[in-house]
Write a structure and sequence with these properties.
globular, 609 residues, Dipeptide-binding Protein, domain 1, 2 domains, 15 helices, 6-stranded mixed β-sheet
Length: 609
């Protein structure tokens, strides 16, 4: 059933579907999280109780409900809580461990991986989960060229082939590789989707529907009672620009050692709050339960923590992910405009000049209140493959770092050498032809990003670059990035411990190779070398060999300045005292973080009274 109401100019969509009551008893193959068990990373957690609503905030509306066609975190924040993978990343350590597969075997030659699925599990609509769902997701969605799937790039083996996925029986799936591929276990953690609900929208399985129909499936217009989840929650209500509601999946397959089915919270209600100042105010007012704070929030929150009953967590751990500016090297390519500007942006010397204009020290001190560090590579510092180490997993030395020091005088000299000088006396540098050079820098309404951009704008303008900063809507910004239509965009990407997870970003045909999408059809020598190094790092189980390949990859990528990196803050988090188990929030996961696993383990301690 679907109700559609026009309320104060906003579209309210809700699902009144009545879910089943769930399993009669805990499935024999359920995943039992060792909460409170000594010797595990969960030993300091306490057993919770079911019930209550977890209120949080997200920065933007989702763009749909289809996990495999999503390209932005505003959507995957939701869909990650509706899907599951064969393998999980531990929410505390990020180590790989069994997910919806209870285990796997690897052949002696490392070319065959056999997954043994948990038996007796069901989707949120009560339909059984089987190997058919895994094979459907992999063969008919992820590897289907008709589907605009972000996960496909990460499945490519070093020789350009894909793993062959076959059903052995209802609860066994086999993946056969043509070559050794160490990160395959990471990439096979893809979100599984329900065949019984979605196969009808796949052209290769149902020729009556046009090719590409799956891309328009589970959109915001889809009645919410048609959505099906294998994850902890499923969407039951959505009010654009206001909030959405996710209710527990009655057939979720995680339990605690006491036999209590997870997640503990009955409902998850993310409010859509595009302004971080408003998010912070909502936390201070008790309208949301947790908050990923900014450095400028610390003095205020520390002063209120005792009286208002919340905790402020400040660590010395670097957060994962990257922040950057992205000069669009394909600017104007689609419509045949901006030819000279495009050639300038493609000139690495111009991008080097821009890199020398980034005052990262000021960004760290003034924007992050000293609680951050400058970045130079796409690989997160917590990764054992981070090139700032001398060996795999070794201490940070930064001996391999590629640094472009803040040096406006050098940048000005480089611009002069490129012929980017003021030819008409108006105070602004022009293109070599004499035509005006104007630069637009865009970011979404995020106070940290805005502060970065204002610093960048001022430094660009100080050397005569006519740069203007403008805030635009997040999804509009993402659309510009994905379509190659922006000018200079300031955004960020999520990160993790495995460099190959960025294959969809940094290889020449990656779907997020946004700084120059044309590299797929017209790669240069550097593009080809980066592709080769990514494959070399992934194509060996020798971690030292992989480390060497990834170090060179990071150095080549840093010299090319496709994404020009800025800074990353230290991990900080705030939560109300009544949110049990929130104390183990970390850079990998928080109660409100992207993967959603940790959110299954927190609970409202007031319900124990």
């Amino acid at each position: 059933m679907k109700n559609v109401l026009i309320l104060a100019g906003l579209l309210l969509v809700s699902s009144l579907a009545v879910f089943g009551q769930g399993y009669d008893a805990m499935p024999a193959d359920a995943l039992v999280v060792p909460i409170g068990v000594a010797g595990t990373v969960y030993e300091t957690m306490e057993l919770g109780v079911r019930g209550g609503t977890y209120d949080c905030a997200v920065i933007e509306d989702p763009k749909g409900w289809n996990h495999q066609t999503s390209h932005e975190t505003s959507t995957t924040w939701v869909t990650n809580r509706m899907t599951a993978g064969l393998i999980n990343a531990n929410p505390i350590t990020a180590a790989l461990e069994p997910g919806i597969a209870k285990g796997w075997d690897i052949s002696e030659d490392s070319l065959i991986i056999t997954f043994h699925l948990r038996e007796g599990l069901k989707w949120s609509d009560g339909e059984p989960f089987t190997a058919d769902d895994v094979v459907f997701t992999y063969n008919d969605v992820i590897l289907n060229e008709d589907v605009d799937c972000n996960a496909r790039d990460g499945q490519v083996l070093p020789d350009g082939t894909f793993p062959i996925c076959e059903k052995v029986d209802d609860y066994t799936v086999r993946f056969t590789l043509s070559t050794i591929y160490r990160p395959v276990l990471n990439s096979l953690g893809f979100g599984i989707m329900p065949k019984h609900a979605l196969a009808q929208y796949v052209h290769k399985l149902n020729p009556d529907v046009p090719a590409g129909t799956f891309n328009e499936t589970w959109t915001l217009d889809t009645p919410l009672d048609e959505l099906v989840s294998i994850g902890p929650y499923v969407v039951t209500a959505y009010q654009a620009n206001v909030s959405l509601t996710m209710e527990r999946n009655p057939y979720f397959w995680w339990y605690d050692p006491a036999g209590t089915q997870l997640p503990y919270f009955d409902k998850l209600v993310p409010q859509i709050v595009t302004n971080q100042d408003v998010q912070m105010l909502k936390f201070r007012n008790g309208e949301i339960d947790t908050y990923g704070l900014r450095p400028e929030d610390i003095p205020i929150l520390l002063g209120e923590a005792g009286s208002k009953g919340f905790q402020v967590m400040i660590t010395d751990l670097m957060t994962t992910g990257t922040t950057w500016i992205c000069p669009n090297q394909d600017i104007g390519l689609a419509d045949g405009t901006d030819n000279e500007k495009r050639e300038l942006y493609r000139n690495v010397k111009f991008r080097e000049a821009l890199a020398h204009l980034l005052d990262k020290d000021t960004m760290v001190q003034n924007v992050l209140n000293g609680l951050g560090k400058a970045q130079w590579t796409n690989v997160s510092v917590p990764s054992p493959f981070y090139a700032g180490r001398d060996e795999y997993g070794g201490p940070i030395t930064e001996n391999n770092a590629v640094i472009f020091e803040y040096d406006p005088a050098l940048a000005a000299s480089m611009l002069d050498g490129l012929g980017v000088v003021d030819q008409d006396g108006d105070g602004w540098r022009d293109l070599p032809s004499g035509d005006p050079l104007t630069i637009e820098i865009n970011a979404n309404d995020n106070t940290v990003r805005i502060a970065y951009c204002l610093i960048i704008q001022d430094d660009f303008r100080a050397v005569g670059l006519n740069a203007t900063f403008q805030v635009i809507d997040f999804n509009t910004l993402v659309n510009q990035l994905l379509s190659g239509t922006g000018d200079i965009i300031q955004l960020g990407l999520t990160g993790g411990v495995e460099p190959n997870a960025g294959k969809n970003v940094y290889t020449s045909c990656g779907v997020l190779h946004a700084y120059r999408y044309s590299a797929c059809e017209d790669p240069n020598e550097v593009d080809l070398r980066m592709d080769e190094l990514m494959d070399l790092g992934a194509g060996t189980f020798d971690l030292d060999e992989a480390f060497d390949a990834y170090v060179e990859f990071q150095q080549v990528e840093a010299h090319q300045l496709g994404y020009i990196y800025l800074c990353q803050q230290l991990f900080m988090y705030a939560y109300y005292d009544y949110i049990g188990n929130a104390h183990l929030a970390n850079p990998n996961e928080t109660p409100g973080h992207r993967a959603g696993q940790y959110g299954c383990l927190v609970f409202d301690t007031r319900l124990k009274d």
